[in-house]
Structures are given as structure tokens and as C-alpha cells.
Amino acid sequence: MESPNFQTVALFQYQHGFTDLTLAVKHLDELAGYIINSNDNSQIMLIMRLNVIVMTSRATPLYPASAKEMEALGQRLRDARLRRRFSMETVCARANLSRPTLYKIENGDPSVAVGFYIQVLRVLGLLADLSLIAKEDVLGRRLQDESLPQRRRAPRKKAAAGASDGEA
Q: Which domains does the chain have, with CATH numbers?
């Protein structure tokens, strides 16, 4: 069996009718079937590289208003860091994240996991602010109240003719 290189991947693409590399790489299990019996590390590295190509090519789509909110959040976190006179290195060390990740957070990159945002909030002493998110859900409460069944009472029975209240 030949060593899978990019020519092998191209052949795999052609045989299965894939028009671009990312679509072919999504089917890495089938590609791995070509080389499953080999113990060559270069073949394993090729599959890992192809997987990285697919993983890095995915973009996180956001509505423009949401993107602006992410950027504003990043700017607020940067301002909070600078007010505390923390360097990027200090925050990175305390939050256990890399400098490029902190840079992405401070620019509001939506591809960063929310756990990293929480770590930065913890380092900056702003973790209590996290509990304010969706605390007062006015719209949700109103929708919930509208869907609750309204209690209805049976109409009062009219008093029988000739019977009076309190007299025996």
C-alpha cells in the first residue's frame, strides 16, 4: 500500500466525487481505512494535519449586533485589566491560558470557549457579574405567565326564593 500523501488524498477526493479538500477531510474515517494497517507515523501525521485544516476553516457566524456585543465585552475586559494594572502575561498565568487566546478574548472573538472568558472574569474579580446574566428575564416571565392556565370559578348559585340569610 502506498504512503498516503496529498496525492493519495487527491485520489480519494476524485474517487468519491469530492470537489474540495475540506469536504473530503470530513470523511477522514474512510481515508483512514486506506492506511489502517500501516504503522507509519507520517501517515498518522497526515490525517492529523488534514483534521486541523477542517477544524481551522470553520468560522463562527454571528449577527452583526451580537458581534458588536462581543467586541464591547472584550473591550470592557481589556479596560478592567488595565485599570487593575495587570499585564497580559499576569492574566494569562493566573487564568492558565495563552497570550493569543487572551488577545482574542479582548477583541471579542466568538471562537474562544466561554470557559476562557469565565477564567478571565475570575482573575479580574468580576465573576459575580456573571450571575447577573439573564437574572431578570422580563420577557420570559411574561411569556410564562401568559401560558399559565387562568383559574376560573363557577358562578355563584342564587339563593333560593323565600330563604333569607341568617334567619332560621
A: 6-57 (no CATH), 64-130 (1.10.260.40)
